[in-house]
């Protein structure tokens, strides 16, 4: 398993906290997040998406560099139906040390 870049590590850490500004600040102003068949563009939309879901904890089980970017597999748990969910993949397709520009979340 690859070590997680700092911005990716902070993404998972901040998802467990209720501070949505901290979480959305990890994204570039024009970033995109694809989750559950919907696309959220820009920091305000990403913040609204994050605010609409309960805080979740991530247990990272794998991280692999692929042609798609960095694919992180995790088990998520929290106060939502069906918790925990194993094997969810977070595809960080475009990011650098300072910001995430494109993230796709899907099984």
Automatic annotation (TrEMBL):
Pfam families, alphabetized: SnoaL_2
Protein species of origin: Saccharothrix longispora
Domain of life: Bacteria
Stretches assigned to the SnoaL-like domain: 8-92
InterPro entries reported in the protein's UniProt record: NTF2-like_dom_sf (IPR032710), SnoaL-like (IPR037401)
Signal sequence segment: none
Protein name: Ketosteroid isomerase-like protein
């Amino acid at each position: 398993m690859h070590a997680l870049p700092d911005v990716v590590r902070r993404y998972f850490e901040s998802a467990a906290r209720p501070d949505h500004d901290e979480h959305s600040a990890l994204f570039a102003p024009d970033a995109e997040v694809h989750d559950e068949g919907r696309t959220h563009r820009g920091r305000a939309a990403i913040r609204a998406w994050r605010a609409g879901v309960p805080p979740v904890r991530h247990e990272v089980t794998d991280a692999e560099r692929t042609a798609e970017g960095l694919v992180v597999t995790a088990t998520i748990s929290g106060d939502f139906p069906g918790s925990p969910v194993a094997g969810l993949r977070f595809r960080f397709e475009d990011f650098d040390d300072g910001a995430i520009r494109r993230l796709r979340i899907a099984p």
